[in-house]
């Protein structure tokens, strides 16, 4: 029977989008990452799926607005990790979406339920789908949101948005937007670098709909609202008068932690001259993130020691207080570090009263950083009490009260509602400037011992230094970074060349020796970049070759900074004098940190594991010339002022040319961390570092050395004990005195399984460091490891494929 015309029109208006014309992508289709390469567009061309070049030769697999100049990304795959030119994404014949890298490694981006996938499609809603023959979406990007919420997208309980790290870095950031199971829509700070949120975190914005919130809607009229299960509107989050017919809409949890609703005029609106070609903010929450976040843990809206101020454009601006600078100059949301040597707590120290002063800032505070407070005092008294306290970094004077604060400072803000003033202590005479916070010891001898340990760790030389040093220079000269990741950059991205006279002055005539090796001596010094910083100056005592290429090779190192590698800042080559200037690592080595009497926090140990893995992954897989460290152990993992792990001591490193995958070399490294192939005359590959990392990971989990003579007989060798515990399913015993780890036992289990995969005797069965990093971060499921003894006993090779 024919339908009446009005009814037919209504029917057409509400026709499901899946029934509208679309460009189906057949099984077996693929696209390759190249500059200006092909993409899969939606039928209108509004959206595209493909590889977006983020930096030269590095691509993000993503969905973006395709008709606007900005090509704004709304969804991305592969946890935001960039891939190199030549990578390929394919809709496989069995209905999966698979990313393949040039080295042959494959990553499953999407796996649909069942085996009924008939095609893929980029829809005009911005949704990328794998669909059946009858147009049922078996997998869709809308169900796996990143940081963006689009009109018609379903946002149900447990759905979440997670910020990117920065504007051009798509790895996970510090903020999460989630509709909780209890019905409350909230925004949290996360336990970065994890994306989890614990009970210790307080939401800095909430819908207050506990028990009633059911679904967040974003309709075609540009309204975002929260409904109950009976469809009643509980709360309107954003209401914009511009419809989706004439404007593009997106709601984003931006990397600064603010949830913003953006609109962008389509071509018709632009031609009328009513709107500019740009995204404009319709609404945002919270109204002032600088004052909204007040956490007992974490840094707040900006980094530690930083200050947040709402700008005229309603965006938060992060800044460092007087005497401080960003630890990463390229990221204003990074922590702020002191640019001066902190006040000594040692009695009869050389610090004089006139070396320090206060910088005043009105309406400024770091709430919750107090460690002592006084009432009914005046400002001069407040100054004096902080002045004489070596722990006092800032004093807040407000309403006749004085509050002393020590580092690190958190939740910093500048706002008219704060009142009072901050008295920020800084050193006037800055001849002994330091890049970070002093780790003050209550025992002067402990402090001296710690300095010697740091110096020994920073000393990158060894008995084979001369054999390997210039190989490393040659490698680093050719190496290029392929990804955009947050860097803990030292001041000045390029190496600085010093004269020998400058080095003599910087080290006070090479007076303070802090370490010595077979071919080099290390001295403490201070040098001037944008600010003066304390450095470790290595003076090469015996250099017999490569004089001609020294300058060029050292210059190349300055272009290879990575946040998890110890940085070379400068050099001196003048006649017989050859010196290298390294960043000074003020928190010593991992061995000093991990094996002390007081156990480090579980969260800190996890961060160190992540950082070390990322550093090794960078060396192995993200460089044009692969570098194998060959000596990964706790003594060679150094910790900066924020306890970020950095790999040092490259004296044993081995370099491979682009057409090499392995090398032959003599046995090296420390027993217990050395891979079995060293002793079997087998070619050496990057898998030796994977083995050593596996041992190191177990030490981080258990807070004990790999070999402990005092332990029970069955537990003397940590790797054997851990494998026994894994076979028995008894992971709690490995962390029995560690309540934090026991409360996170599933992660403990996963980390132990990863470690066992790493210490397989057969190197071909160990995972790559890239896969290890992804398993640590939860991007890949950890396989059940095979028996570690099976390689020795000659079992078949097939059982090892599960770890690889």
TrEMBL record:
Residues 1-19 form the signal peptide. It is found in: Membrane. The chain crosses the membrane at residues 452-476. Its EC number is 2.7.11.1. Keywords: ATP-binding, Disulfide bond, EGF-like domain, Glycoprotein, Kinase, Lectin, Membrane, Nucleotide-binding, Receptor, Serine/threonine-protein kinase, Signal, Transferase, Transmembrane, Transmembrane helix. Residues 508-780 form the Protein kinase domain. It is an enzyme of class 2 (transferase). ATP binds at residue 539. It catalyses: L-seryl-[protein] + ATP = O-phospho-L-seryl-[protein] + ADP + H(+); L-threonyl-[protein] + ATP = O-phospho-L-threonyl-[protein] + ADP + H(+). GO terms for cellular component: membrane. Its main location: membrane. InterPro entries: Bulb-type_lectin_dom, Bulb-type_lectin_dom_sf, G-type_lectin_kinases/EP1-like, Kinase-like_dom_sf, Prot_kinase_dom, Protein_kinase_ATP_BS, Ser/Thr_kinase_AS, SRK-like_kinase. It comes from the Eukaryota. Residues 24-143 form the Bulb-type lectin domain. GO terms for molecular function: ATP binding; carbohydrate binding; protein serine/threonine kinase activity. The keyword Nucleotide-binding applies. It is a single-pass type I membrane protein. The keyword Lipid biosynthesis does not apply. Belongs to the protein kinase superfamily. Ser/Thr protein kinase family. This is Receptor-like serine/threonine-protein kinase. The lineage of its organism: Eukaryota, Viridiplantae, Streptophyta, Embryophyta, Tracheophyta.
């Amino acid at each position: 029977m024919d339908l009446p015309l009005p009814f037919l029109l209504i029917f057409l208006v509400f026709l499901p989008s899946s029934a509208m014309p679309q460009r189906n992508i057949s099984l077996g289709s693929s696209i390759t990452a190249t500059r200006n390469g092909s993409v899969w567009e939606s039928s209108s061309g509004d959206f595209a799926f493909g590889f977006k070049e983020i930096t030269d030769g590095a691509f993000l697999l993503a969905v973006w607005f395709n008709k606007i100049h900005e090509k704004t990304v709304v969804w991305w795959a592969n946890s935001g990790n960039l891939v190199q030119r030549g990578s390929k994404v394919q809709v496989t014949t069995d209905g999966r979406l698979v990313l393949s890298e040039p080295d042959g490694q494959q990553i499953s981006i999407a796996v649909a339920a069942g085996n009924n996938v008939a095609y893929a499609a980029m829809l005009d809603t911005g949704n990328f789908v794998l669909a059946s023959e009858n147009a049922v979406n078996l997998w869709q990007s809308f169900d796996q949101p990143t940081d963006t919420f689009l009109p018609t997208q379903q946002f149900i309980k447990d759905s979440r948005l997670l910020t990117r790290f920065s504007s051009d870095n798509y790895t996970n950031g510090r903020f999460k937007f989630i509709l909780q199971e209890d019905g409350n829509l909230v925004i949290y700070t996360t336990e970065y670098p994890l994306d989890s949120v614990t009970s210790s975190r307080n939401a800095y914005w909430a819908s207050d709909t506990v028990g009633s919130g059911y679904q967040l809607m974003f309709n075609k009229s540009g309204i975002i609202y929260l409904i109950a299960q009976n469809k009643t509107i509980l709360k309107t989050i954003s209401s914009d008068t511009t419809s989706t017919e004439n404007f593009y809409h997106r709601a984003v949890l931006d990397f600064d932690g603010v949830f913003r609703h953006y609109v962008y005029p389509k071509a018709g609106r632009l031609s009328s001259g009513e709107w500019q070609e740009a995204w404009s903010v319709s609404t945002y929450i919270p109204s002032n993130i600088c004052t909204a976040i007040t956490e007992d843990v974490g840094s707040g809206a900006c980094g530690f020691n930083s200050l947040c101020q709402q700008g005229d454009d309603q965006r938060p601006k992060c800044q460092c207080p007087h005497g401080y600078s960003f630890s990463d100059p390229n990221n204003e949301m990074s922590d702020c570090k002191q640019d001066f040597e902190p006040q000594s707590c040692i009695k009869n120290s050389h610090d004089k009263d006139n070396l320090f002063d206060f910088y005043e800032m009105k309406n400024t505070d770091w709430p919750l950083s107090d460690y002592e407070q006084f009432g009914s005092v005046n400002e001069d008294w407040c100054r004096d009490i902080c002045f004489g306290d070596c722990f006092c970094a800032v004093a807040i004077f407000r309403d006749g009260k004085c509050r002393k604060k020590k580092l690190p400072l958190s939740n910093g803000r500048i706002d008219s509602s704060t009142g009072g003033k901050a008295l920020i202590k800084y050193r006037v005479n800055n001849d002994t400037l330091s890049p970070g916070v002093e780790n003050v010891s209550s025992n002067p001898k402990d402090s001296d011992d710690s300095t010697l340990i740091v110096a020994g760790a920073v000393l990158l030389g060894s008995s084979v230094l001369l054999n390997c040093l210039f190989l490393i220079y040659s490698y680093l000269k050719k190496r290029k970074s392929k990804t955009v990741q947050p860097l803990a950059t030292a001041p000045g991205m390029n190496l600085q060349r010093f004269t020998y006279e400058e080095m003599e002055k910087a080290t006070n005539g090479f007076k303070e020796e802090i370490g010595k090796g077979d071919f080099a001596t290390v001295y403490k010094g201070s040098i001037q970049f944008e600010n003066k910083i304390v450095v470790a100056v290595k003076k090469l005592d015996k250099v017999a070759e490569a004089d001609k290429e020294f300058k060029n090779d050292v210059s190349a190192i300055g272009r290879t900074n990575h946040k998890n590698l110890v940085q070379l800042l400068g050099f001196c080559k003048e006649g017989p004098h050859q010196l290298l200037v390294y960043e000074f690592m003020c928190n010593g080595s991992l061995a000093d940190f991990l094996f002390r009497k007081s156990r480090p926090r579980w969260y800190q140990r996890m961060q160190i594991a992540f950082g070390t893995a990322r550093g090794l992954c960078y060396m192995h897989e993200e460089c044009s010339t692969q570098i194998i460290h060959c000596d990964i152990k706790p003594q060679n993992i150094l910790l900066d002022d924020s306890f970020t792990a950095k790999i040092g001591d490259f004296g044993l490193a081995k370099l491979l040319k682009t057409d090499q995958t392995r090398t032959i070399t003599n046995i090296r490294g420390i027993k217990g961390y050395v891979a079995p192939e060293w002793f079997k005359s087998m070619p050496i590959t990057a898998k030796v570092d994977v083995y050593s990392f596996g041992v190191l990971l177990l030490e981080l989990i258990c807070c004990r050395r790999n070999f402990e003579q005092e332990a029970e007989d069955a537990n003397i060798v940590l790797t054997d004990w851990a494998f026994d515990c894994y076979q028995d399913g008894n992971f709690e015993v490995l962390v029995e005195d560690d309540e934090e780890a026991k409360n996170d036992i599933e992660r403990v289990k996963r980390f132990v399984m990863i470690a066992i995969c790493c210490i397989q005797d057969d190197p071909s069965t160990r995972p790559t460091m890239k896969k290890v990093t992804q398993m640590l971060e939860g991007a890949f499921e950890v396989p059940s490891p095979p028996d570690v003894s099976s390689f020795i006993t000659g079992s078949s090779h097939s059982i090892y494929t599960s770890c690889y």
